[in-house]
Amino acid sequence: MAIDYSKLKHLTVRKLITALERDGFQEWRRKGATRFYAHPDGRTVTLHVHKPGQTLRIGTLKSILEKQARWTEEDLIRLKLLK
Description:
- By secondary structure, the protein is an alpha+beta fold.
- It is built from 3 helices and 3 strands.
């Protein structure tokens, strides 16, 4: 099932960080506005956080969710990012 990004257009960086941590990712490095998160299974996520309340563009969000975190729609529901 494909992820419906129109339902995620109001997802803030703060909520995304909370979901990453809930899924087992830990911040392992920070350089300026860039935060690096790593999961014990080897996945890594890079976020550019200028303001925690900012929202991300759909293309950026798609890269983070599908390519870096490798989350499915079921994962997003489990992490309470989708209903």
